[in-house]
């Protein structure tokens, strides 16, 4: 039975505008799955593992990405993130459920799920006031539910009070932004007992935000052996140039 709210404000597909749901069955099939790759060099890598030669002391063990971020998927996320249509988050439970089996590799190195802490990328108080919600919190809660893990939004805090949208910054500006510390750990949070932290974000572009969070965690707990993995819904496709029969990633 259709609800009163849906009667007066019917849901429409974010991609094709058909009425009925925020993402119709046809458009769900048009979303392109992201190939398993190393998040740094963007070469194919089983279980999205970071290649050994790409790692440094702040690298993630893996960064899982569900789908490509393109002209089909971007309207879906933008309506949720920037237009305040929070009800779109109801689709995330279904979408994440279709790919979570490919992320279960994160459980193999822990004895039980309760040793996994799931956190969302925090937004600043100023951005939270403007938007009314943290768009990654709902995603992280769903991931934690499927993994039977612990979720918290009290572990790390965003102290950036600028009006800059990361999505509007180019690669150089993003890297410059990371030089100014945006995140701090809530040291009152009881971290003992957790062996793995999973950072959840909606979109990964350069990976600078994830790396900044990793740096914050590693610098706060230099003596703790914590595994870091990440789960992201979307990422744009990599671009390569063919030069001298070798492939090089385009800088963008």
Would you kindly provide a brief summary of this structure?
The chain has helices at residues 4-8, 25-28, 74-81, 90-99, 125-131, 135-147, 171-177, 208-220; strands at 62-68, 116-120, 150-152, 156-158, 183-185, 196-204, 227-235, 240-243, 246-249. The protein is an alpha/beta fold and 252 residues long.
Structural description of this entry:
This protein has 2 domains: 30 residues, no CATH class; 218 residues, Rossmann fold (3-Layer(aba) Sandwich). Helices cover 27% and strands 19% of the residues. Helix 4 crosses helix 6.
List the defining traits of the structure above.
alpha/beta, 8 helices, Rossmann fold, 252 residues, 27% helix
In total, the number of strands is 9
Which CATH first-tier class of the largest domain would you pick?
Alpha Beta
- How does the overall form come out from the CA principal axes? globular
Q: If you average the pLDDT, what whole number results?
A: 85
Helices and strands, with pairings:
Blueprint (H helix, E strand, L loop, with lengths): L3 H5 L16 H4 L33 E7 L5 H8 L8 H10 L16 E5 L4 H7 L3 H13 L2 E3 L3 E3 L12 H7 L5 E3 L10 E9 L3 H13 L6 E9 L4 E4 L2 E4 L3
Parallel strand pairs: 1-7, 2-3, 2-6, 6-7
Antiparallel strand pairs: 4-5, 8-9
